[in-house]
Write a structure and sequence with these properties.
177 residues; alpha+beta; Lipocalin; 8-stranded antiparallel β-barrel; two-stranded antiparallel ribbon; elongated; Protease_inh_B-barrel_dom; OM_lipoprot_Omp19_bac; Inh/Omp19; endopeptidase inhibitor activity
């Protein structure tokens, strides 16, 4: 009898505690985070590139590790003499990205993406760096690409934890930790 009374008391206390929690407004959840603003997508018709207009001839950067010149020809990028060998895992994680007056962050993963592996940037002001969506290795050259697979920048490892090169528009660019 005493055992049944104790069991009844414990069950009663559990029910009472559950009821109190339910009547107090439910579980205490954290407030949801605000939505992150996104850049609107230009869904209108795009104008064709005109090599006579400065800045538009570089949008045709090739996927073969070449950089276009202002006259529309393609110039090969030669590696610097101190270029170090690099593996895929050497690039994983967060990096500081600097090009011109722009200083932001780049993040690289091994998730496959069109023409390479997934990458993204945060805090970049220039559209060229904001558009980075992928990265790949071409020998010891690191190639950063946009969402359509076009080359955005080409870099070489000059020392451990640092990659230097240029964007498809010819602006110097560096990745470093």
């Amino acid at each position: 009898m005493k055992r049944a009374a104790n069991l009844g008391l414990v069950v009663g206390l559990v029910i009472l505690a559950a009821g109190c929690q339910r009547l107090s407004g439910g579980p205490n959840y954290a407030a949801p985070l605000p939505a992150t603003p996104t850049t609107p997508v230009n869904s209108g018709a795009l104008q064709p590139l005109d090599p006579a207009v400065p800045g538009t001839e570089t949008a045709t950067a090739g996927l073969d590790g070449t950089t276009p010149t202002t006259d529309g020809a393609v110039a090969a990028v030669t590696p610097p003499s101190n270029a170090q060998q690099v593996g895929r895992t050497d690039l994983l994680g967060g990096w500081k990205l600097a090009s011109g007056a722009d200083n932001c962050m780049a993040f690289m993963t091994l998730t496959t993406w069109s023409g390479g592996y997934r990458a993204n940037t945060r805090g970049c002001a220039t559209p060229v760096l904001t558009g980075i969506s992928a990265w790949d290795l071409n020998g010891n050259q690191v190639v950063l690409k946009d969402g359509s697979g076009q080359t955005v920048a080409q870099l070489y490892s000059s020392q451990s934890g640092r990659f230097d090169g240029q964007t498809a528009t010819g602006v110097p660019v560096s990745l470093y930790r």
